[in-house]
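User: Can you help me understand a structure? I only have the sequence.
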Amino acid sequence: MRTAGRVIAICVAAIGVAAAGRAAQAADPEMSVALVPAQVAIVEGDHDNFQAHHWMPQGYTGGVEEFSLAHTFADGTALSVDSHALIDQNDLGADILLKNDALGFFKLDYSEFRKYFDPTGGVYYPFSTYPSIDTTKDLKLDLGTFGLETGLTLEGMPELTFLYEREFKDGAKSRLTWTSVKEGSTTRRIGPSWQEIDEIADTFALKATHEMAGIALTGEQRWERVRTDTFREERSLATTGAASDGKIARQDQAPQANLMTTLLGGERSFLNDTMFVASAYRFAHLDSREFERLAEFNETGALQSFGHNKLDARADNDYDSHTWVGNATLMPWPWLSLGARLKSELIKREGNSTYPDDAAPADGIANTTAVSLINHKATRWGEGLALRFFGIPRTALYTELELEQARVLLREDRKSVAGQSAASASDTFNRETVTDVRRGTGTIGGRIDPWPVLDLTAHVRHRRNNNDYDDQRESTASGTALSAFIDAQNQHTDEFTTRLTYKPCRWFRSSFRYQFRDDDYDTRFEAQQAVKAGMRSHIYTYDVTLQPRPDLLTTASFSRQAAATTTPAAQATTANTPTFNADVKTWMLSADYTPQPAVMLNGTFLYSWASNFNDYTASGLPLGADFNRLDLTTGVTWATGEDTSVKAEYALYSYLPNSIAERGNYHAHVLWLEVSKEF
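Assistant: Let's start by predicting it. Here is the structure, written out as tokens:
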């Protein structure tokens, strides 16, 4: 499928040209093409970090930046084609739409792009042998979609739509679960790890819409199938020479899932369109299965268990959900709108798993096997109210209230089955937990335009998420599952956002935006006092747009993100971590200048810096960021003819981090040449 999609993306221009040639017998189509004969990136320094930041490979690339075609046939059928193909960047795309309003449509689309990842792990500068490590794995991940959609729109008949879509991921990416690196008696988790991913998700859908007795009816049947194969490797390093300090952990996983959903809905307007009512029901059935193998090896690659190897573990889950939603909107007067929404959901899940354990010394035979059974039921209710008021000139006010209540029952029984060894008592865990959940969100906001030159918007929002856990049956009070050792967990969030826009004249516009968020977390463990944590952030943004002349447009902006985090670790005696403060500032300037009708100059300047590095190497890893980043782009576009133009651009990308906080500095020079033609 990927190969077919690439062929489509690369050849769609030729297909479009051929279609345009045939269509020219009736009328000439509109067509344009933009070619990139050369894109060259020269990188000095860490080219992996450059690619991860800009999603751009070093070296030479080229291809078709954009191809478009539009044509309307004599019978009213419209054809549109849009595509691009930058081969070396693996940036491909094609969209083809053939539409006749009296008959239906056919749509084909394909897109694929590549993400790059930095192979470097963490940094611990006191180490002399391993201050930082790069994995030798080439880390890049290709993501894409391929879709076919066709619809029938005959007058007086239900509208029918069929959809097929495939999403895929293929490649390798870095992980933040860094591995242990040991030098002398000091161990720090800075070693890089990576994961290979091969994932395909197929979706089939059949949808019908029809109006009957003034009711707009909708029905949809959807089937989804997901298949994933992943491989993860974590390699520990050490100067000690001990085999256990240089182990290699490899994990194979193969999750599979089949999802079927049925959706039925209807909506209608009443009372001369002053009242609108809608309702929908959704049924979903999920069947999932997962296979897993976790094995440890020594530095030579021989199987060796330094702890426990997991052999051919398996988990199965069946999940059913019934969801109903209904909403009504009433607008008795043009200046007042009232809305109400109700939601209910019933969830049932049953699962089982087997987890064979091959303890040291590893021989490929399970010593014991942990067998688990899970039964999960949940009921949820939700209510929503909304009010909008427009009765004051140049003013709009609104308020919203969202509530949710849930009751969740979780039963889990885990036991150990003997293999080469006797059953393990530590693998026994039984519980039955009832969780009461109460969530609520309230919002008040509005917009006011006191004068034509001034515009002000603002809203205040408060969220609550309270979870109370009642362990009615529990084999131990020190288990590892969430509700087995937590009595309650509450989160409170306050938000405030405002934006002020000032436009005194045609050529000047400026705005200021401020966002505030305060999160408080309160967790109460069994037989312990409540633990509090929190995070507070401020985001300031100011931008201005100037156009003093018709041929000159300039914009400028400044933003600052400031955040502070507090955790119980601030009171710890062994590894005291004070409140962490983060502060990142960014400047951006851009200008477009047209000195002559055939010539346009453009430039963009972006500078970002952070200085919130905290050196905790005495007790752990350095935390925070300390870097300077510069993106400078300039270019010229020359209209060589009425329908032809040539564009040349140059960019300088620079990234300079503090070497004791992060590795990955680089300077990059990028050149583009683009040729465009309209037909």
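Now, to help you interpret it: Residues 34-71+217-260+272-678 form one domain. The chain is about 5% helix and 70% strand. Let me know which part you'd like to focus on.
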